[in-house]
Design a protein that fits this description.
2 domains; 3-stranded antiparallel β-sheet; 6 helices; alpha+beta; COMMD5; COMM domain-containing protein 5; COMM
């Protein structure tokens, strides 16, 4: 979970392990652990994982330590750290809308034509306001209702139900 500083690399490197060699080892180990932790424990078996490490020519003295990270008590904490540190888009916290009818405007064809003013408040605190024609608002309503109906239909299918 914590980044490795260049000073730590220099401290570990010696005459037999150069900084470049250590960088290759670190990046390979990081890639191996990242891919192993992405897999659910039901599909990744310890025996298969050890066979894979043998194929990668990882010395046997390190295999037990690596396997303990993937299958041991630290795994839930690592998974939680991965979930907490991943990049995300802000979520919609609030959506307000109102109908607006312009009585006087510089554009003559928009006089007395209703529009929908929408205001979105996001989880990062930003507020976005925009104007939508009534026809586009109805299209948005229809598409949201359609997606909700499709989700409901999917939930009714027996393949997605949890079996006891």
């Amino acid at each position: 979970g914590k980044p490795v500083s260049p000073e730590q690399f220099k401290k570990i490197s010696s005459e037999t392990l150069t900084e470049d060699t250590l960088t290759v080892i670190y990046s390979g180990l990081f890639s191996l652990l990242r891919r192993a932790i992405r897999l659910p424990l039901t599909s990744l078996k310890p025996e298969m994982f050890k066979e894979d490490m043998n194929e990668l020519q990882i010395p046997a003295e390190f295999q037990e330590d690596i396997a303990s990270v993937v299958f041991g008590a630290r795994r839930p904490r690592i998974e939680n750290e991965i979930l907490d540190s991943r990049p995300r888009l802000p979520k919609l916290d609030q959506l307000k809308w109102r109908v607006d009818v312009a009585i006087s405007t510089s554009v003559l064809n928009r006089v007395l034509e209703p529009t929908i003013l929408m205001e979105m408040k996001l989880s990062n605190g930003k507020i976005h306001s925009f104007e939508v024609p009534v026809s586009q608002f109805h299209q948005l309503r229809y598409n949201v209702a359609y997606v909700l109906k499709e989700m409901e239909d999917l939930e009714k299918k027996s393949i997605l139900k949890i079996q006891d």
